[in-house]
Write a structure and sequence with these properties.
Elements: H1 9-13, E1 16-17, E2 21-26, E3 29-32, H2 55-60, H3 67-74, E4 77-80
Bound molecules: protoporphyrin IX containing FE.
Amino acid sequence: TTSLPVYSREEVTKHCSTENGIWVTYKDGVYDITDFVSIHPGGNKILLAAGKALEPFWALYAIHEGEHVLEILSEYKVGVL
Ligand code: HEM
């Protein structure tokens, strides 16, 4: 089994630009979504969550409740909190 690196929330907040990479968290997972931003069906709104937790945004946009959304997200996992 492989174990992913552990990151602090503070470290995640630094990754909020294309230069440093765009990271988000979901539950205890850390995701580098830099390459997903340009193909997000919801467009640039996704950047509001850069460096932050996805939960408050997904609470507002219920379209993310589908299983396929978590499948997409899982491809970008780079670490855990
Ligand atoms: C739509 C994925 C973050 C706003 C979608 C859809 C997917 C998706 C797959 C299409 C859903 C469907 O039609 O069944 C993701 C992933 C995210 C993310 C993987 C994080 C890594 C966000 C954030 C926001 C957002 C943070 C808002 C701040 C929207 C909106 C739509 C949408 C408004 C609807 C677009 C439309 O149908 O016109 N997202 N999303 N998304 N997303 Fe996201």
